Amino acid sequence: TDQDPRNFEIDCSFLTGGTSYTLTAVHDGMNADRRGVDHKITTSTVTRNDRIGVHLAPAGGWVARFVPERR
């Protein structure tokens, strides 16, 4: 991103229906606007019905991996 912080949502409707996914996300930490290496890793379970809230610090970033859960 540029120097402007932003918030947005990702609609998970692109995921396959009837399947749950483990979402592992790396995102800006609490102090990322002052310390560029500050990041946080979170894990959650999502489906195609979910929306993921994303906050980007100034010059920040976000990356995620979706892995189908075994039945």
Describe this structure in words.
- The structure is a single chain.
- The chain is mainly β and 71 residues long.
- It is built from no helices and five strands.
- The protein has strands spanning 6-11, 21-28, 39-46, 51-56, 62-68.
- The strands form two sheets. It has a three-stranded antiparallel sheet with strand order 3-2-5, with no helix packed on it. Strands 1-4 form a two-stranded antiparallel sheet.
- 7% of the residues are buried.
Strand order of the largest sheet: 3-2-5
Alpha-beta classification: mainly beta
Report the span from N to C terminus: 37 Å
Order of helices and strands: EEEEE
Number of DSSP strand runs: 5
Spans where pLDDT lies below 50 across 5 or more residues: none
Overall pLDDT confidence: 87
Number of helices: 0
Oligomer: single chain
* CA-based shape: elongated
Q: Roughly what fraction of the amino acids lie in strands?
A: over 45%
Helix percent reads under 10%
What kind of sheet is the major sheet?
3 strands, antiparallel
Brief summary:
The chain is mainly beta. Helices cover 0% and strands 49% of the residues.
